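pls design
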């Protein structure tokens, strides 16, 4: 938190601080998503499935490659925690840290959700976001963050000495365990840092701590994704509700979330190809 200063500033302290920042991972060379093709495909979508995510719970669902899926605000402002896995290999999962390093702290239309090492390829592309108008507010807050990891019972136990079993981490474990018929212990190894759908977050200007505030999402708002590979998705309706005051408890008012899955005519995606996994040799100087 940088709250203590036990050492004297050197004489050139201000000069050192004046160095210009450099973007760590410039994305100019990244292959751009085919947004024009996606836009055409969006005009001919056919809904093929719908899933309701109960409050303080999670469900998993499959999205075939070259299909779209939307997460809707169903009955009231509600935040969701999203995990993604390759349907062919659960070890290939969403890498929020690298996605954040490429695009920034919050995602929206045109941004892609990248998979973990050693695969590192786009798993999904955000093709529409009804909250894209929000931008960044005066507190530095924005929506759909890849900062927070997910609420979990371990941190809650440390901070409050209370046991709570309906944090998003636990919800996703139960959902994946049930969906793939694996043990809770196996499922927990695959649950990972999330995309916080509809959550409004940022860093405080004084201590730079992670903050949350009431989500601006309203009934009918949605975020839409294009599945670049065959996916299993896990979505938890966070116990924090709109995350305006608390999480990891039963205090907040919570609502269900709705997921809709769509197919589109194959002819609308003539230029699309499934992304390949990283072609790095894997030698690591061996």
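designed seq:
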């Amino acid at each position: 938190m940088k709250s203590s200063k036990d050492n004297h500033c050197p004489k050139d302290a201000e000069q050192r601080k004046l160095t210009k920042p450099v973007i760590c991972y410039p994305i100019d060379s990244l292959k751009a998503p085919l947004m024009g093709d996606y836009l055409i495909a969006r005009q001919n979508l056919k809904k093929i499935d719908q899933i309701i995510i109960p409050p303080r719970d999670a469900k998993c669902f499959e999205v075939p490659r070259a299909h779209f899926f939307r997460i809707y605000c169903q009955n009231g402002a509600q935040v969701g925690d999203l995990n993604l896995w390759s349907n062919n290999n659960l070890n290939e999962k969403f890498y929020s840290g690298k996605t954040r390093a490429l695009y920034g702290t919050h995602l929206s239309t045109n941004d892609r959700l990248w998979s973990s090492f050693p695969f590192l390829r786009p798993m999904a592309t955000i093709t529409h976001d009804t909250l894209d108008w929000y931008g960044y507010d005066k507190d530095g807050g924005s929506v759909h963050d890849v900062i927070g990891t997910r609420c979990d019972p371990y941190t809650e136990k440390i901070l409050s000495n209370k046991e709570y079993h309906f944090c998003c981490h636990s919800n996703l474990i139960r959902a994946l365990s049930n969906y793939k018929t694996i043990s809770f212990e196996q499922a927990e190894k695959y649950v990972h840092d999330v995309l916080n759908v509809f959550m409004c977050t940022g860093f405080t200007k004084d201590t730079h701590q992670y903050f949350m505030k009431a989500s601006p999402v309203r009934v009918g708002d949605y975020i839409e994704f294009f599945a670049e590979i065959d996916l299993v998705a896990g979505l938890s309706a966070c116990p924090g509700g709109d995350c305006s005051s608390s999480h990891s408890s039963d205090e907040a008012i919570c609502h269900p979330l709705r997921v809709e899955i769509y197919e589109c005519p194959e002819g609308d995606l003539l230029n699309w190809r499934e992304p390949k996994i990283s072609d790095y040799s894997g030698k690591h100087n061996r």
